[in-house]
Amino acid sequence: MQLHLSIGENHRFELREALLVYKGNQSSFITHHEVKLNEQAPPTLGPAQPLTLSFLESMLRSLGGTSDAEVLPENVLAKGDRMLVWWSPARREQMFYTNAERKAAELNGKTFPQPPLVWRVAHGRLRIRALTENKRPNSKTKLAFAPYWNISNSGEVCLGSMRCPDSAAASAIPSWERGFYESAFTHGNVARLTRHKGGFEGLWSELANKRRSFPCSHLISMPETLAQFVRGR
């Protein structure tokens, strides 16, 4: 079997190898086969072989999955294949609210002090947690819930109108952060976002256009550690 494509120039492709995926109720496995070609009959599969790391790496390279090495900035906490975790210190950012019920409408477009945050990007998905101290966390640091709309219990951000870079490289960090703050915060995904006695609207109304630091005492602490967050658990 041959496949001919014209993409600027002609390339000749031949069927050489095949992967078969076997799935059970709770597990799966993959076998690797060489393909035997016969002009007088359909292709046949050779004996099953276990997958090897070298084969997977070569396939990833052929699919353009490799990337150039990059120097990691100090704010990066962990780096994996298509996964990046970093932290951002406390700062001030403008935020935008467009709730259909006009909730938090008075907060739209104002600037607020932000808590220190931990960000995790993996396979195009963004998760965020807050830090109770404005310093670089370590693997055992306990995290807190990020007190924002559009975030689920797991910390995953509902991307909605957010402009997301198509990269998990360290160079994309500013674009991920800018996309988050410039997106429209439209709805709350969990019942409780903060320990502030006035709730979500009370907290952010108190902070609107203020130059004070974010009161980390109003964050809801969690048993989740940075190491667990990095692993996606």
Please, could you describe this protein's structure?
The chain is an alpha+beta fold and 233 residues long. The chain folds into two domains: 2-62, no CATH class; 76-230, no CATH class. The protein contains four helices and 16 strands. It has helices spanning 53-62, 173-182, 199-207, 226-230, and strands at residues 2-7, 9-14, 17-23, 28-38, 41-45, 49-50, 76-80, 83-88, 91-94, 96-97, 111-114, 117-122, 125-130, 142-145, 184-185, 221-225. A hairpin with a 2-residue loop joins β4 (28-38) and β5. The longest helix has 10 residues, at 53-62. The protein starts with a strand and ends with a helix.
Number of alpha- plus pi-helical segments: 4
> In which order are the strands of the major sheet placed?
7-8-12-13-14-16
The residue fraction in helices comes out at 10-25%
* Secondary-structure element string: EEEEEEHEEEEEEEEHEHEH
How would you state the average pLDDT, rounded? 89
In quaternary terms, these chains amount to single chain
Q: What number of structural domains do the residues give?
A: 2
Key phrases:
233 residues, 2 domains, four-stranded antiparallel sheet, 16 strands, elongated, disordered N terminus
Summarize the structure.
The protein is of the alpha+beta class and 233 residues long. The protein has 4 helices and 16 strands.
What is the topological layout?
Layout: E1 2-7, E2 9-14, E3 17-23, E4 28-38, E5 41-45, E6 49-50, H1 53-62, E7 76-80, E8 83-88, E9 91-94, E10 96-97, E11 111-114, E12 117-122, E13 125-130, E14 142-145, H2 173-182, E15 184-185, H3 199-207, E16 221-225, H4 226-230
Parallel strand pairs: 10-15
Antiparallel strand pairs: 1-2, 3-4, 4-5, 4-6, 7-8, 8-12, 9-11, 12-13, 13-14, 14-16
